[in-house]
Amino acid sequence: xxxxxxxxxxxxxxxxxxxxxxxxxxxxxxxxxxxxxxxxxxxxxxxxxxxxxxxxxxxxxxxxxxxxxxxxxxxxxxxxxxxxxxxxxxxxxxxxxxxxxxxxxxxxxxxxxxxxxxxxxxxxxxxxxxxxxxxxxxxxxxxxxxxxxxxxxxxxxxxxxxxxxxxxxxxxxxxxxxxxxxxxxxxxxxxxxxxxxxxxxxxxxxxxxxxxxxxxxxxxxxxxxxxxxxxxxxxxxxxxxxxxxxxxxxxxxxxxxxxxxxxxxxxxxxxxxxxxxxxxxxxxxxxxxxxxxxxxxxxxxxxxxxxxxxxxxxxxxxxxxxxxxxxxxxxxxxxxxxxxxxxxxxxxxxxxxxxxxxxxxxxxxxxxxxxxxxxxxxxxxxxxxxxxxxxxxxxxxxxxxxxxxxxxxxxxxxxxxxxxxxxxxxxxxxxxx
Length: 433
Ligand code: PMP
Prior knowledge:
Aspartate Aminotransferase, domain 2, 16 strands, alpha/beta, five-stranded mixed β-sheet, about 15% strand, seven-stranded mixed β-sheet, kynurenine-glyoxylate transaminase activity, Aspartate Aminotransferase, domain 1, binds 4'-deoxy-4'-aminopyridoxal-5'-phosphate, kynurenine-oxoglutarate transaminase activity, aminotransferase, 14 helices
């Protein structure tokens, strides 16, 4: 009788309804595959080169220093020196006075900043516009908040005259974008520079989005974690600086991307108090705050950068220079084997067209797995090179339209990129023989 009773109890669903349909995750599968088979992992987005000395030294100083209070709780919404320096920096970038206590909130990475936004702004029945391809966590986060994601794809306008593709060739269709806004639309998520394409949205595109946000009274969650990684002298325009947008935009940033310290998990939001006050409610009642020592060391990193702003020694000047070089190496290596790279204007990702390889990859009968998934798995297992299928960054309904591409991360040591090049050169020889 007791065992029957226990069994009956165990048949009750344990998971909350809000988790239905969001329990599959591409990263679990691909991180495992890469760990098992790959010799060179250009899949997941993190640098394998060391963080700059000045942030590592700052952390050592904080750890070993006199101020033992840095090992205790700090202010819930952000360690005072960090919110202060972030308010100074973003004040300068946006050309407005920012109050460190009300216009800035520190989070556990940009991930938690995103989570706070969706929890704070999205109600049951609200729609949130997501531009495809997108950083994959936006969709489950909107759903967990009870909202409905509405997708609008960037459309590829293939360049003429055999020119190389660029992330700038992926553009919003203005009429299509406008058709997604209605009275249920609560917010749009903008990610510029965009993961996975590396697209840096132009002023015209941002004005289009801004006009629609103002017209329909819609919020903008602006994920700008790759803000310092912009190439070829291109300018990053911040949507919050456009007319009517400051009051309806939350900017999201990440020390992980800014200082090449993804493991520290320090992120932040910048925006008007009328929005941030609700983020503070979510933050206070979930995470409370992020590690004090990490916040203190990041604050010291920013203090240095603020002093060196625009100077050649600044990390924000040096890092994009180095990464642009790495991007160009990877472009060359991929072209050699016959992939067609889409030159990214920003981020540390590069997407390449793999439609020329269909005959190399065995068909799996009765499988509805997209070609890019099959290709990426085949490449990891047979060539030892890991990348991520692009359709992972699309909604279910649109995946099949974008299954001819894979994403590489080039924020890697020269030696790692050389090892990738060796694999690709060997592959090229095999193809030609
Ligand atoms: N937004 C985008 C677009 C990202 O690519 C990432 C990290 N891959 C994040 C947010 C999360 O950043 P963090 O590591 O600071 O949580």
